[in-house]
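User: I've been trying to design a sequence by hand for this structure and keep getting stuck. Would you show me what you'd pick, starting by listing the structure so we're on the same page?

Assistant: Good idea, let's start from the same input. This is the structure you sent:
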């Protein structure tokens, strides 16, 4: 993993991104060159400066669309058919977008034949790159070899992580440093470390050593780990390794001291100002684009309810610094959904949801009125999802560090929303908090852009709707 703008990005996917950027740029240049050679019989390619502006626009548009289609997600591989579908949709949307861009900015446009040739080259080239990449990345020889110090609960979590086919590491083995440590990994994966730790690491061709002891007070081989560090082995704590590889912070192993001394969780005026400008700009653009959808939703709700009842739904939520505010959504449930006044989690296939409401929720159209919350300053476009005061009071008692999610404004979309399906339980809230903590710790403007683009994929593929 490489840390880019405070967000961990897979080294393999960064390599793929760079390769696709170069290929998309090259496809425009090659298409232009080939077309000129055929039409004019000239044997020399055109100057790069002639093609660069159009090629850079093409690269930017296509990478943004491919990100929105989920092609650069942390753990993406759903089979060749799904890959082909996503790339096909990306290029179809890209075709319309580039046509519009060339119409609005004719100085950037290419000839019809040049662009058609370049587009076909780019499509088949990206397909080939993708399939070769996933074929190669599936091989164990390309994965980082990890040695885990510890065989208890933390070590077992690393073992669970490795079961994901998209992981970028391979555990070479576990070293049980204390006999009284509660063994939570298969005994067959344990390694003997009777000699120096560095000798074992060299013999196994280890790339990284992860210190995953449940309790270091029982003894920690400082000198041997330091020797490994000096010899060039990468040393990582369990919390850092878990955060880097999963995009979330492990709550069970977290201590207040980890938060105090960790890099991140900082608030800066310039960041907050930039985020506010981003929120206002994106909200105004979306309102300008989405008003026909909002008008259609209004009419659909009104007709289904027999031309009576409220169109909008207002509910108290907990915002920044535990302040209360009223969230605004399109009404998707019956008006008597909570007639007894008792707050309830929304459930999958909830009987209280109307037919129109189900469509609004699946497409996330019910969220659009929250853009006014963003403009008012109650919410941000990206941030943890706001919860009701009744649920917050209950969850804060049961889940450690839960109140930290109120360090930032709640959002319409967020890191937890695109990484974890919709949930309505204490365990789901706990899991989503781990993603929220990661977002708060590693916030950057770049991270917000990534989340915004990946939200498009979540909406189009219907993941996490409720």
């Amino acid at each position: 993993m490489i840390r880019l703008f405070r967000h961990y990005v897979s080294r393999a996917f960064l390599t793929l991104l760079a390769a696709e950027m170069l290929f998309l740029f090259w496809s425009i240049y090659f298409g232009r060159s080939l077309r000129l050679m055929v039409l004019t019989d000239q044997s020399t390619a055109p100057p790069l400066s002639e093609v660069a502006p159009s090629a850079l626009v093409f690269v930017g548009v296509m990478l943004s669309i491919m990100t929105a289609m989920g092609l650069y997600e942390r753990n993406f591989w759903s089979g060749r058919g799904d890959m082909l579908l996503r790339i096909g949709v990306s290029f179809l949307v890209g075709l319309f977008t580039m046509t519009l861009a060339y119409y609005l900015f004719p100085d950037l446009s290419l000839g019809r034949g040049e662009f058609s040739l370049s587009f076909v080259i780019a499509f088949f080239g990206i397909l080939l790159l993708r399939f070769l990449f996933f074929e190669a990345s599936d091989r164990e020889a390309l994965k980082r070899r990890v040695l885990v110090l510890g065989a208890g609960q933390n070590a077992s979590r690393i073992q669970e992580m490795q079961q994901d086919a998209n992981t970028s590491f391979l555990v070479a083995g576990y070293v049980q440093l204390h006999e009284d440590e509660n063994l939570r990994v298969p005994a067959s994966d344990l390694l003997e470390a009777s000699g120096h730790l560095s000798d074992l690491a060299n013999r196994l061709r280890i790339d990284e050593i992860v210190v995953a002891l449940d309790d270091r007070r029982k003894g920690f081989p400082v000198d041997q780990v330091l020797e490994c560090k000096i010899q060039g082995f990468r040393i990582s704590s369990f919390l850092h390794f878990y955060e880097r590889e999963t995009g979330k912070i492990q709550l069970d192993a977290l201590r207040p001291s980890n938060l105090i001394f960790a890099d991140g969780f900082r608030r800066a005026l310039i960041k907050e100002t930039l985020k506010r400008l981003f929120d206002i700009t994106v909200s105004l653009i979306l309102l300008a684009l989405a008003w026909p959808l909002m008008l259609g939703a209004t009419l659909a709700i009104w007709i289904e309810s027999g031309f009576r009842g409220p169109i909008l739904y207002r509910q108290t939520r907990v915002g920044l610094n535990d302040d209360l505010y009223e969230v605004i959504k399109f009404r998707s449930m019956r008006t008597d959904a909570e007639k007894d006044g008792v707050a309830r989690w929304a459930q999958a296939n909830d009987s209280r949801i109307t037919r129109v409401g189900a469509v609004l929720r699946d497409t996330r159209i019910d969220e659009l009125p929250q853009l006014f919350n963003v403009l008012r300053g109650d919410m941000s476009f990206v941030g943890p999802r706001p919860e009701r005061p009744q649920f917050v009071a209950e969850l804060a008692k049961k889940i450690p560090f839960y109140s930290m999610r109120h360090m930032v404004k709640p959002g319409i979309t967020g890191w937890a929303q695109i990484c974890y399906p919709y949930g309505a339980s204490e365990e789901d809230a706990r899991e989503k908090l781990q993603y929220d903590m990661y977002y708060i710790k590693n916030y950057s403007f770049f991270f917000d852009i990534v989340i915004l683009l990946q939200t498009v994929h979540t909406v189009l593929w219907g993941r996490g709707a409720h």
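That's my pick for every position. To get oriented when you compare it with your attempt: Residues 269-336+349-460 form one domain. The chain has a mean pLDDT of 86.
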